């Protein structure tokens, strides 16, 4: 996955209501948007041959998103998790390449 792929993503927005509490978690929209922007920035840095901006794949693995407030907009937790399951390996590949002394172009 490339930084441009992450920047082009649009997740469907869900409103958290009392009835939606039984339909699965809804993550805070602003928090998810911030993390995805950080992912795109990290991938862009790797793609240009630089080290990441500080975000590591392990940071994403351990990150726990806040739930959207009641009657607030957010993103379906399963969709966010699925997306991160695509982003994390891309960041790991770049991290491993840099550890070996390579660049993004070596991939």
Automatic annotation (TrEMBL):
The protein's name in its UniProt record: DivIVA domain-containing protein
Lineage of the species this protein comes from: Bacteria, Bacillati, Actinomycetota, Actinomycetes, Micrococcales
Superkingdom field: Bacteria
UniProt cross-references to InterPro entries, sorted A to Z: DivIVA_domain (IPR019933)
């Amino acid at each position: 996955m490339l930084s441009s792929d992450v920047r082009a993503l649009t997740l469907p927005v869900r409103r958290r209501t009392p009835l939606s509490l039984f339909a699965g978690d809804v993550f805070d929209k602003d928090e998810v948007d911030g993390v995805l922007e950080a992912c795109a920035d990290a991938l862009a840095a790797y793609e240009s041959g630089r080290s990441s901006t500080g975000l590591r794949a392990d940071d994403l693995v351990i990150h726990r998103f806040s739930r959207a407030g009641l009657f607030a907009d957010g993103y379906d937790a399963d969709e966010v998790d699925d997306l991160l399951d695509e982003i994390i390996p891309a960041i790991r590949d770049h991290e491993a390449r840099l550890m070996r002394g390579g660049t993004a172009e070596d991939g």
